[in-house]
């Protein structure tokens, strides 16, 4: 008898560190904007809120714990959604900077990129003739000559100080098939226990392309490495590839991630006015496919999270 598909976890990445204010007037950058968009996304059906911080003066990405403190406790107080704090930050941040707030906050969940990699949107700068802030153009163009660093030792350190010591579990971000093998290495070493939450990512320059065949390859590779019952699969499609790949992934038994970190658009040529618009759209698609959306507490149970009461904010 065929196994009944689990409910689908919707994650929402609210602001990120890749897009800049010039690219969309709807990108949340101030604490009030991040709070508003987070709560609207949770109300629309997002069980997990993936959060970065911005300097409210000009929208510049920041790892300053004080910046996070201006909105994270407010979100926790107003919603039951799982709060997921980035450990990725941006390519310009050190590991120590990226961990500063997670180690203070001890959240239920953090993202964890499973390898060092080229990570860039520098071609996007060619499409912009006028920038709102002086930092934006060199920031975007400069990605061409930067890497995102997460060595094996970096990952091992994060697993220890944040996972073992703080009880935080991870959204394992896998931008390429090699990242799945990196994850398998840490599982084999006994440094990671299930259930695994694997966020497979497509369409970032430096990682796997958005071809549907790549999604199938990542799913079957994860099955082979971990066994389907030992992990939760999720799909992130960058830019215009967001909704098609998420739909395909959901049909394959996966969970989904939306948000203005991943795509600024709702449809062709149509900027999303909020993260909640994207949540509502993917929820409609899921429900048309006769799939049920997980609540925050259902997501906690599925992912083995420690609970909202056990965080430090």
From TrEMBL:
MF terms (GO), sorted A to Z: 3-keto-5-aminohexanoate cleavage activity; metal ion binding
Keywords on record: Metal-binding, Transferase, Zinc
Cofactor needs: Zn(2+)
Gene3D superfamilies hit by this protein: Aldolase class I (3.20.20.70)
UniProt xrefs under InterPro entries: Aldolase_TIM (IPR013785), BKACE (IPR008567)
Record has Zinc as a keyword: yes
Domain of life, per lineage: Bacteria
Pfam family, one: BKACE
Protein name: 3-keto-5-aminohexanoate cleavage protein
Lineage: Bacteria, Pseudomonadati, Pseudomonadota, Betaproteobacteria, Burkholderiales
């Amino acid at each position: 008898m065929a196994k009944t598909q689990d409910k689908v976890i919707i994650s929402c990445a609210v602001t990120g560190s890749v897009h800049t204010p010039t690219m969309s007037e709807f990108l949340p950058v101030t604490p009030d904007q991040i709070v508003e968009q987070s709560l609207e996304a949770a109300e629309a059906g997002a069980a997990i809120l993936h959060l970065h911080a911005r300097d409210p003066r000009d929208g510049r990405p920041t790892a300053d714990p004080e910046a996070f403190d201006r909105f994270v406790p407010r979100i926790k107080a107003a919603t039951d959604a799982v709060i997921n704090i980035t450990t990725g930050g941006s390519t310009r941040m050190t590991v120590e900077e990226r961990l500063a707030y997670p180690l203070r906050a001890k959240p239920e969940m953090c993202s964890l990129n499973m390898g060092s990699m080229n990570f860039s949107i520098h071609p996007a700068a060619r499409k912009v003739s006028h920038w709102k802030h002086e930092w934006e153009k060199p920031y975007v163009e400069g990605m061409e000559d930067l890497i995102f660093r997460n060595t094996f030792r970096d990952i091992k350190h994060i697993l220890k100080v944040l996972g073992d010591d703080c009880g935080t579990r991870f959204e394992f971000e896998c931008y390429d098939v090699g990242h799945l093998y990196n994850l398998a290495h840490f599982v084999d070493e006994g440094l990671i226990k299930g259930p695994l939450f694997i966020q497979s990512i497509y369409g970032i320059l430096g990682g796997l392309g958005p071809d549907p065949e790549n999604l199938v390859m990542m799913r079957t590779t994860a099955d082979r490495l971990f066994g389907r019952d030992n992990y939760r699969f999720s799909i992130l499609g960058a830019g215009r590839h967001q909704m098609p790949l998420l739909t395909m992934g959901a049909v394959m038994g996966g969970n989904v991630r939306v948000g203005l970190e991943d795509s600024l658009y709702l449809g062709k040529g149509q900027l999303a006015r909020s993260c909640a618009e994207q949540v509502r759209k993917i929820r409609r698609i899921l429900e048309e496919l006769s799939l049920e959306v997980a609540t925050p507490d259902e997501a906690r149970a599925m992912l083995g999270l420690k609970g909202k009461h056990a965080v430090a904010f």
